[in-house]
Each structure stands twice: as structure tokens, then as C-alpha cells.
Prior knowledge:
By secondary structure, this protein is an all-alpha fold.
Amino acid sequence: IPSLPSIFLSSPTLRDGKCKQQTERYLHELHEGTLWAVK
């Protein structure tokens, strides 16, 4: 089951912009295991 951010990020209605950039950063940080994303 994909996580909500992955579904959200792959949505065709999500435009390129700050929200998409923040979601991409969140997923990257979560993958890297950095503190702010896993709290």
C-alpha cells in the first residue's frame, strides 16, 4: 500500500509548486531517516 504522500505526489492534478516541492522533500528526508521527517 503506497503511503499518502506518494499518492498525493503522483496525483496528476498536483501542480508544480511549493506544495509539491515540500512533499518531495518530505519523502526524501523520510527515506534518508532525518529527524524532522520521522518525528
